[in-house]
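Entry for 5-O-phosphono-beta-D-ribofuranosylamine complex. Fields follow.
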Amino acid sequence: MLSIGVLVSGRGTNLQSIIDAIEGERLDASIKVVISNKADAPAIDRAGEHGIPVEVVTTEGFASRQAFDERLTGVLKSYGVELVVLAGFMRILSPGFIKAFPMRIINIHPALLPSFPGLDVQKKAIDYGVKLSGCTVHFVSEEVDTGPIILQTAVPVLDDDTPESLAQRILKEEHRIYPEAIRLFSEGKLEVKGRRVLIKK
Ligand code: GRF
């Protein structure tokens, strides 16, 4: 069974979708640890309610990004984590961290990459005037929001959308495709060829 570690900073609805998929036996994996860099993240309570160990690792007391990331690596390794799942983790990870888990860190982004990387992307999509947006699950590489794409789903952008209403429509799809991507990884079905991720039958 795949051992995963989930990194969070906020409300944790994607974490919840992974917990639900495991408890609903749609995903054969075990969340060994949830790590939050924010002491008051609501995601912490979600983990606690399901008996998942939580480690709060704030940036306080760390002299550098590298030192903080080394601590994260140490915690993840101590729990035997094989796949690192970023679920609303609001920090950029250093190259050293990414090298510690090669092709073993995944992220979900609320836009159709490579369109709209970065933050506030639902507003950016509306302001740009795109008719479709969506979400992307991808492997994490050293540059933000650029790693090989595992799964994407599109949703319409409606004339009366606000960033919040669009975010809500996208989030519903996130909760569906993130556990699905983890399942494909756990079953060894993802084959990375350069930028392409082929999904084995
Ligand atoms: C999601 O929209 C995700 O795509 C982005 O951050 C948000 C996290 O939401 N990376 P939650 O904490 O999982 O509810």
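NOTE: The mean pLDDT is 97.
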